Amino acid sequence: MPRGPKKHLKRLAAPSSWMLDKLGGVFTIKPSSGPHKQGESLPIALFLRNRLKYALNMKEVETICKQRLIKIDGKLRTDPRFPTGFMDVIQIEKTGENFRIIYDVKGRFIVHRITAAEAKYKLCRVREVKTGPKNVPYLYTNDGRTIRYPDPAVRVHDSVQVDIATGKIQDTIRFDTGNLCMITGGANAGRVGTIMSRERHQGSFDIVHIKDSQGHVFATRLGYVFVIGKGNKPYISLPKGKGIKLTIAEERDKRLGGK
Predict the structure, then answer these.
(1) Kindly report the CA angle at 7 between 5 and 9, in degrees rounded to 5?
(2) What's the pTM?
(3) pLDDT value at residue 247
């Protein structure tokens, strides 16, 4: 019997958010274990090679990483398989570029450039709030952080704005009706809208109803809702299209109108 964790990942088994072609070989890069799950992450190597085209192959990616040029959430990372995930900030100081890992409306990871000022913070979704030894309150976030002594008003499903340099909470955004959110999974991944209502289902998934700025209403699971702003003001810059999903006909018209 083979023992230990799997070390390979077949291309067809890779998440569709990576946008890999079927014919580019049999295997692809398996992300190392890290702050994000494999299905919700994008390895640095794919970001540098497939998205930014800064490298032609994996060897060049390794060379870039080993020169200590890539910072993720303010930390130097030399592992080309390191998993970056939703809301992570990637900084390449040599080129002066800052990126935030974010989804487009089709649920694919895209290159989203941000300003140096915006690269100083990130939003994290609160997964659990607990009390530790000696009655120390703490919370877990979606990117594997443990933050001690948070604001007592913070609840599960809220978002916190974390200062990347210090790891401290700067602001909190309540999971509340009327607040802006982005969907991080399912068929609506990447869509942005305001929270309308929440249906509670005991023993099953809670459903959240969301309305985007065009008036389209859609529903998704509570676990996929990531609050990104108070009212209709987002705390982060949104990618092109502002998270509005177009119908097939609208997409065609936009494409033909752009020519």
Answers:
(1) 115
(2) 0.89
(3) 87
pLDDT of residue 190: 92
Q: Are residues 20 and 49 in contact, defined by beta-carbon separation less than 8 angstroms?
A: no
Average pLDDT of every residue of the chain: 92
Whether 58 contacts 49, CB under 8 Å: yes
* DSSP 8-state symbol, 215: S
With tokens 């289902």, the residue in question is 201
H helix intervals, 11-152: 44-46, 58-66
What's residue 259's pLDDT? 65
Q: What 3 state SS string does 222-250 have?
A: HHHEEEEEECCEECCCCCCCCCCCCCHHH
Tokens of 61: 């990616």
CA–CA separation, 46 and 38 (whole Å) = 13
Q: What string of DSSP letters covers 74-100? A: TEE---TTPEEETT-EEEETTTTEEEE
The pair of structure tokens assigned to 79 is: 């592992």
Instruction: Let me know: does 92 contact 104? Beta carbons within 8 Å.
Output: no
Give the model confidence (pLDDT) of 141-181 as tens digits.
999 999 999 999 999 999 999 999 999 999 999 999 999 99
Q: Given the structure tokens 């705390």, which residue do they identify?
A: 235
